[in-house]
Amino acid sequence: MKLSLKVNGRTLEAHIEPRTLLADFLRDHLRLTGTHIGCDTAQCGACTVHLDGRAVKACNLLALQAEGCEVTTIEGITPEGALHPMQAAFRDHHGLQCGYCTPGMIMSALDLVAREPAPSRERIREALEGNLCRCTGYQNIVSAVEAGARALAAKG
Amino acid sequence: MYEFQYHRATSVADAAAKLAAATDGKLLAGGQTLIAAMKLRLAAPSDLVDLRAIPELRGVCPDGDAVVIGATTTHAEVAASPEVRARIPALAALAEGIGDPMVRNAGTLGGSVANNDPAADYPAALLALGATVITHKRHIAAADFFTGMYETALEPGEILMAVSFPAPKRAGYAKFPNPASRYAIAGVFVAETAAGVRVAVTGAGPGVFRVPAMEQALEKRFAPESLAGLTVSASDLSGDMHASAEYRAHLVGVMATRAVRVALGG
To answer: Which CATH number fits domain B1-54: 3.40.50.150, 3.30.230.70, 3.30.450.20, 3.30.43.10?
Structure first.
């Protein structure tokens, strides 16, 4: 079945089986493997991407549900040869151990700071409710999001 | 996930026709329950009819003293809606507490109500507020809508279009969430409405239910102290690995008291 959508600013058309999940479409068809599949049961949030600007779990949506929408993945926020301020904050604050959950954490964090530019640590924890880190590095993740929000606000 | 045919409906009439033409069709809104169930092969519909491209099913619109919320409005949209926040803040707060942010950005009011999960939050709000479910065929009072575990009064092929929530004088919702899923282990919605006080419980039993004894006590005096000593019987409640029926019965009293406090602004 035909699918038309925008991924990371690029307009695309593809022919896919209806049962193709958005996460699989991004990874297997577009080779955008920064979107990770952790649990594949919509619990861990490693597959978080933005659908028309809001964070969603790509493993729990059909690719066809993104018809006509704008999808942004971790690749889409990363400048060529550099890091996005939120990515830099995760590196600076050691907001990752194995790194598997990081793309999802960053996409959730960016959805939060887009609506709340200066979130409290408590709000950050609430906003990351759907993102699990099995290394349990939550303290540093919260600090990273706090610093990333500050860096983005300073940048304007 | 098994194979299926996918259809994108352009109108409610189109969705009804496509659903009627399918062998074993299901409606798709946010898909936050259905897609997960299909991945586990707990559901294997022959056809999915996607409702999200139908503009009239989405959005919040004031209607006299009520707020009408379209079926494909997401939980995040309900939580952020200025109309809902102004007229029924308890409903906005309930929507803000469903699942996690990503689930709220995709999951819909209509999907949750039609699925009638015994631990879902919305059924308690519908029952306590005396809401009306609007389908493409008729209006159904919330009291007649939730008929059993995952069962509703919807007939095969009937499409839930919106829910109309009358604004209460005051209301509050409190839930004891499952720490992993955020579904209600026990959730209580208390509302003081034009028709009197209603107390509706979700999560604790096989389906949403009212507690007349608590309603009568709050009718006399709308205060947390009025609920002191009032409990529900554990015999009709659910017990599982997360909480025994006796513990859920206890939680109903605690959550009801908290919900009254919320309704009173505390």
So the answer is: 3.30.43.10
